[in-house]
Each structure stands twice: as C-alpha cells, then as structure tokens.
Amino acid sequence: MNKIALIGSGGSGKSTLAKKLGQRLNLNVWHLDQLLWKPGWTPVSKKEQIKIQTELVTQENWIIDGNYNSTLDIRLDAADTIIFLDISRFICVYRVFKRMLIFRNRTRPDMREGCNEKMNLEFLKWIWDYPKKKKPEVLMKIENLSNEKHIIILESPREVDQFLRRMEAVRQR
Question: Could you count the other beta carbons within 10 Å of the beta carbon of residue 91?
Fold first, then answer.
C-alpha cells in the first residue's frame, strides 16, 4: 500500500482515517477539501482540480482523501489501494453535526484556511442521498478495478478501528 485513494460520504471519517493511516504507514496525506477550495469556500476550477490531482498521483506514495466524483478516475487509476468507507448515513449525519459544533466559525485541520466550518441543507441532503445516488456509481467503478487494485470496503466505525489496528501491527513488523 503505497498509493491509497480514500473515498466515502461526507462524515464517513475519510480525513480522520487518512491522517491515522498516514502516520502508521508513513505516507504523505493529501485532503482534497484542503486543496480544491480557496478561502471563502470558492472552488478551484475544474482545470485546476485535474492539474492538482494529476501532479499528486505522480508522487511515490500518498493517501488522497476526498470524493470529487468528476475527477475520481485520476486517483483510482493511479492508486494501488482503494479504501471505500461505506458508513451508515445516520452516523455520517451525526458526525457532520458534531464536526460543526466542534469547529463552528473555525477552519478544520483538513480544510483550507478561510473555509470556516459550515453546514447547509444541500450538504446534508447530499450525505443522506449518498447511499442511493453516489454509492452505486462508486461501487461499480471499484468493482471494475478489483482485478488490478487492492480494494478495502469498511462498513462501520468498528471495522475502521480493526483495520487501523491491523495496519499498526504491519508497521511494527
């Protein structure tokens, strides 16, 4: 595992897992939310998104967390490992509310400075609809890559914790 694409719904724990996994495996971690937004929640252009990600995936090792389905293939094609966090929408929504309270009027560590934590109905609807609208597309993409990539699907916080413990054991060998 040298090039890991980490995907899942908002609130699924992508950034947290990326950080912990990066520490355990000594890999560079890139949060797309930090790279693809300018201060004030202004998105970078599609051209910039492609350029940034194309440059990132040429590096020797990395963990890149984020969805950005329109550019997902850049990461999936370059990754040797794909981790999909298939976490319940209830947990994801709860975590987003919790995150909003913790970082209210501040910038999260995995976001670009000047993008203070916010929540809106559109984002909550996106999370709620993710299992029906986005998940099937993601599963189809990773299924098509299953012969050439290591695919890991984690379906609960417990499975994520177990996975991290296994990765810690690998590091200690």
Answer: 15
Do residues 89 and 9 lie in contact, with contact meaning Cβ atoms separated by under 8 Å? yes
Contact predicate 131/124, CB 8 Å? no
Q: pLDDT per residue over 62-118, tens digit each?
A: 999 999 999 999 999 999 999 999 999 999 999 999 998 888 888 888 888 888 888
Which CATH number goes with the domain that contains 165? 3.40.50.300
Provide the token pair at 111: 């976001």
Mean pLDDT of the chain: 93
Burial of 92 (0-12, 13-18, 19+ CB in 10 A): buried
Indicate whether 173 pLDDT > 90. no
Domain of residue 66, residue span: 3-172
Angle formed at CA 66 by CA 124 and CA 22, multiple of 5 degrees: 130
Number of domains in the chain: 1
Assess contact for 20 and 83: CB atoms under 8 A: no
